[in-house]
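Priority: low. Protein: Helix-turn-helix. Input follows.
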Amino acid sequence: MAEQNEAHGPMEKVADIGRDIGEYIKQQRSNAKISLRQLSKLAGVSNPYLSQIERGVRKPSAEILQQIAKGLRISAEALYVQAGILDLPTGGPVGDAIRAAEELSERQKQVLLDIYESFRRENAASKDTHTRSEQHDHPQD
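Result:
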């Protein structure tokens, strides 16, 4: 029984990430109604290699993920997050909506996300300043 518990060590997590990204790519390809062969051409990746990625046998590099994202017409950032290369982006539902907007180009999405994040940072800083001044005006007894 102890051996099964050890199966969730760092190497197993890497294997899980490989499977997860492969499943995610396969799901995105299926949603886009693109065959494995079509995606391999669009992404400039060999058919067998792409198949191995989807099955979790191979873990693709960031460059390969970028090519696959371009072939799927999705954000490379989405694949990087799935692969564990990037942390989950902030922004909650607004950020998710921007990333999901199919009518926007990747550049337009990034500009909107940058603006949105700058507003969030500005408002958070303003709130911190306001909170500090209130605490200064009303010291606790």
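The chain has two domains: 1-88, 89-141. Residues 106-137 form the longest helix (32 residues).
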